[in-house]
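Hey, sorry to bother you again with one of my protein questions. A protein chain has come my way and I'm curious about its shape. I'm sending you its amino acid sequence along with the backbone structure tokens. I owe you a coffee for this, so here goes:
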Amino acid sequence: MTETLPPVGIDLFDVERLLLTEAAEPLLSPHDAEARDRVWDMAVRANPTLFDGPVVACEGLEWTGPRILRLSWVRVTYRHYALRRVPGATALPSLFVNVVQPTDDSRVLAARMSPSTAAPGRWQLPGGSVEPPQDGAVLDESALAGQAARELAEELGISVAAEDLKLWAVTCGENGSVGLTYLAPAIPEATLRADFTTAAAAERIQGREPELGDIALVRSPDELAALAGPHADYLKPIVRRFFGCR
């Protein structure tokens, strides 16, 4: 029997297999399109670093069997999410990958976004928006794991093969956003911090502010309370699951 997942709330699901299907972007009325562009332009004036690049939105989720999840996705750009601020308009949920990066002493990493990002100061897992496939490629489980591995490399300087990342959970959270959470192999703290320092320095040499401004390692979900600032809605549920909390 097919069961539609709840579109709102902070929910976490175990998934054994992920099926992906591309869908068409819903048509917008001229009024909503104009309002979307107006909101986006205002956001760019407030933060010129915003970039209207291609991303993937989630058109729908459904169970097709035990722990088998079908995800319908749509090609959009970041501008699409300005619809959240247009009264009466509907924006598709965002789709992102993130990674649980443990250390070999059983701690887990939380990362703080830099001030210039769209979520300044927010604590979250390393990761980012899913991007659409290019040049005839397909968006499948392997491609998603590859994007998660790339986020680790770009944000933390950690090199891990896509096949070594395990799809570990799917979250449904704020604005219906869908997160695909991968579990990475544990590494020593010294290696993690050295890689992060090197990656941040490389960004600054190129004249760019690193996407992550700080990192922290926690031994339990209770330690998240000491991280000052906003937290991604999925962060505590994911950390609780990692430490086996109920």
User: Anything to note?
Assistant: The radius of gyration is 18 Å. Residues 1-9 have pLDDT under 50 and may be disordered. The longest helix spans residues 30-46.
